[in-house]
Each structure stands twice: as C-alpha cells, then as structure tokens.
Amino acid sequence: MHGVDAGLVAPPTPPGQPAETGSAPEIIETDHVVLAAGSVASPAILLRSGIGAADELRELGVSAEVDAPGVGAALSEHPQVVLEWLPRRALPAPSSVWMARSVDLAADGTPEAAHPGPDDSTTEAIASLVPMHALLDGRRGGAELEPLPVLLADHTPRRRGRLRVRVRVRDADPLSPPRLEYVYLADADDRRRPRDGVRAVHGVLDSPALAAVVARVLGTDARIRRDGAALDAWIDDHLGTALHLCGTVPMGRDDDPRAVVHGTGAVRGVDGLTVADTSILPTAPRRGPANTAVLIGELIADALRSHPA
User: Fold this and answer.
1) CB atoms within 10 A of CB 234
2) Whole-number Å distance between alpha carbons of 81 and 241
3) Domain chopping of the chain, boundaries
4) Domain 3-74+245-306 has CATH 3.50.50.60
5) In whole angstroms, how large is the CA radius of gyration of the chain?
6) What is the pLDDT along the chain (309 residues), one digit of tens a residue?
7) Which of 98, 113, 132, 278 is packed most tightly, with the most Cβ within 10 A?
8) Would 3-74+245-306 and 78-161+183-241 be classified into the same CATH topology?
9) CA distance 290 to 245
C-alpha cells in the first residue's frame, strides 16, 4: 500500500480505506482500522477523514464527523543543532553502535553529573561515529576523511510541553503534503540552551586531549562563538529536529478536551478505529522514542487481542 486516502469514517457502512496500491485507488472495507502512519501522516489522515477541529475541517471543505481539536494541534519534538568536525585521520567504522558517547549538559553547558537531579538536564550531546548522511540514509560517502557530527538536542523536561509544532493539511487532497508550523527559539531561554551547548561541545573538541584526533571544527570559528548574535544567526541557519515526533493524536483522560484517543489507542467517538504510533504520546520522552514506539505497538496489539472489536 503506497498511500491511504480519507475515508476512515464512513457511517453507516463499515469504515473504508481508499488505498493507492500502485495505480487506481482501491477501497478496502473492514470492521477495524489500525492507523500507524506516524506523527505527521496519522493526524493528516484523520483530518481528511473528518476527525479534527470542526472549524478547521469546515475551512477545508471536509465534513466534520468527530470534533477533536487535539488532532495535529501540538506535535512535541526536540529541537536539534548538528556540529561537525573533521578527524585528522580516517577512523575505523563502528562494528555495531553508531553512537560514541552521550552527555547531558546542564543549563550552564556543564555535564549533568555536576548538577544532580533530572530537572537540571537541558541538552543532550551525542557524538556519532558515522557521518550525518549515513545516519539519515545509511550510506557512507566515498571520501576517506568525512566530517563526523555531534548532535545537540534540547530535552529540557520542564519545557517539553512548550516546544510545539502544529501539523496542518492544506486541503482535502491526500497527495498534498501536510504543513508543519514550528515554534522554536521563541524566547531568550530557548536561544541560550543551544548557544551554551555549541560552546560546550567546541570546548571539548578544541581541548588538548583531542588534539591528536580532531583536525578542526567545521562551520563556526572563535569569532562566531564569542559573538552571541553571530552564534544565534548560525544556529538559526542550522536548526533542525531530532525526529522524535510525538503528540499529534494525544491520548488522555475522558475529561481532557485535547485528548483524541484512550490509553488503548481507540479514537474517541469512532467505533473500530485505533491509532498505534508515537502520535498518541502527549509529549516526546526524554530520549528518542524508538523503543517506546515498539512498546506502543505491543501494548495496543495485546489490547486488541484481549478486546477485539
């Protein structure tokens, strides 16, 4: 199946999924749909199926089957900046784990160990043993010496709920890509953390202890690191995300107006529809949600086996 169209809700007939199987769309009728398209595509499919904020659906020309304002309203993510450095010599390829070391930095850019307590950690720095493009597509380049990245991601526990992104659809066309509206670096504290993180990582890479390994840091220099405005501009140009997307179809209590699904992933107000991906997590966890995604699948599969529709 290459794509799923709107049509998850089609009363009074069983829910149908118009699916693209290579050429002409195919209608698949079923008593129960399990949606696991991810934190961007899952809310987009729900919105085009009439499940979302009623006012927004009317603007799209979509009939509002279920008024669920939490759909796509608050994608929770970890803002990330990547700092690359060039080794003096080719390093051996890792045999298994791509990550060399992970360090939590406190609010002042020092290691978290100097500040006991989980609320003090603000930024995670991960040193990678493979180039950035290999992390993204799995392929190594042909050059003998390739830059290696240090990934700096904001994981501040007390502010996870603020670093939000909205997922919206432009129209009812299933082939039209969703629109992501980011709200990063909104205040001085948001800006201070990546700035302190970049300076802390530079301090490590420029240290005498790594002089025999690190040839130079790429992209920034001492002038940029000293100049707060110049460093902020560099961060603006290089800001990305850690791809820890969650929260666009959030689960919650019955009295939570933003909750879209129950703890089992069942969509409120719709019989026979379950969401089973990280979109149901209200906020991104402190670390990458890969294992959490597997757990979600296991728990929801167990719930469906125990209480089939």
Assistant:
1) 21
2) 8
3) 3-74+245-306, 78-161+183-241
4) yes
5) 22
6) 334 455 555 443 334 556 665 667 777 888 899 999 999 999 999 999 999 999 999 988 899 999 999 999 988 888 899 999 999 988 877 777 787 778 888 755 555 544 444 444 578 899 998 888 888 876 665 556 789 999 998 876 544 444 457 888 888 888 888 888 877 887 787 888 889 899 999 989 999 999 999 999 998 888 888 888 999 999 999 998 888 889 999 999 999 999 999 999 999 999 999 999 999 999 888 778 899 999 999 999 999 998 765
7) 278
8) no
9) 10
Topology annotation, domain 78-161+183-241? Cholesterol Oxidase; domain 2 (3.30.410)
Residue 218 in tokens: 């790429």
